[in-house]
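Researcher: Sequence recovery benchmark, item below. Answer with residues only.
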């Protein structure tokens, strides 16, 4: 876990950005730093908790394979590739990223349940942008 001096340094760095929440996960625990809305831009330590299998459900994020435009459905179809609440297999397509005429699949990093979509359809995304949240089986 970070020392008190390291936490102060991270808080100072965070204060110089527009980031609302910073979460660090290590095998030893989780540290979350965020802005407290009632106190303006003051940075506070929100949480420092030990990790165990019951406290944190296994989760994965499916990220954009490239820069482009996020699509939840193929341009020729109205039906989304996958819906929230649907079970998927590792490697299964979840959505698409369009780069001009090219469509790249966004695939599931592991088998699990789709629990969320993080970007709006048509959003410009960068490489690795988190697009889908999965609860790992």
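Model:
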């Amino acid at each position: 876990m970070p020392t008190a001096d390291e936490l102060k340094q991270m808080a100072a760095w965070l204060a110089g950005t527009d980031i609302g929440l910073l979460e660090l996960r290590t095998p030893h625990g989780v540290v979350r730093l965020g802005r407290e809305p009632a106190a303006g831009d003051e940075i506070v330590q929100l949480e420092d908790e030990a990790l165990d299998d019951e406290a944190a459900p296994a989760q994965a994020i499916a990220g954009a394979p490239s820069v482009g435009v996020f699509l939840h459905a193929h341009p020729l179809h109205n039906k989304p590739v996958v819906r929230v609440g649907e079970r998927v297999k590792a490697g299964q397509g979840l959505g698409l990223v369009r780069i001009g005429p090219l469509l790249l699949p966004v695939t599931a990093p592991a088998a699990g349940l789709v629990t969320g979509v993080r970007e709006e359809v048509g959003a410009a995304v960068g490489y690795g942008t988190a697009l889908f949240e999965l609860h790992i089986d």
